[in-house]
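subagent[fold] <- orchestrator: predict structure for attached chain, return tokens only, no commentary.
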Amino acid sequence: MAFLYDRVVASAIGYLYDALAEFFFADLADGCRFLDLGCGSGQVSLRIARQNPQAQVVGIDLAAGQIARAKKRSQGMTNLTFEIGNAMNLHLPDNSFDIVLSVASIKHWPDMSQGIHEMTRVCKPEGHVWVIEVDTHCTDEEAENFVATWKLVPGTRPLIRRYFQNFVSNQGLNLKELEELLRKANLKDVYVQRIPDHPFIIGTGIKK
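subagent[fold] -> orchestrator:
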């Protein structure tokens, strides 16, 4: 599944990764430490590290194959490292990152609340925790437009769209659930919203 996502989905939605890096994470402060948890093959981490050579970016994922692909992609980059790790029990010190991000990963975690608590633990006080995930309330049109960017075998698109909406999105979160998870992690200034015209929601909070 991870390999399929890397080859079919991630390659098709690079424009979304670009927008994420440019809109939310441009011009990071010198020395900023950034954690991409559930980084997959490094699509987001790479963009953020390239855009912010003054920052230190770390990507962590449980899948060894994804980390191997991420390391291959990032050869020669001195401000980006990738490690195998478990979001449920990060082997990282408390208060060690300025920004902690998870993109489309927490739906795969056995305990979302525990994972966000780990994200908060390793975040510095006044640092930011960010979560982006599939919206369980996405519309047929949003799902169809999203799948339309994928390179698929002719004739399979309607089936894949139904699979995405009925299976993938059902594993995600709605706005209320994401807000509750962030507040239970004792974050302040929690804010959640849908990403317009896309089947995703985004939430953020600041560590007290």
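orchestrator: received. Logging for downstream: The chain has a mean pLDDT of 90. Strands lie at 33-37, 56-61, 80-84, 97-103, 123-134, 187-194, 200-207.
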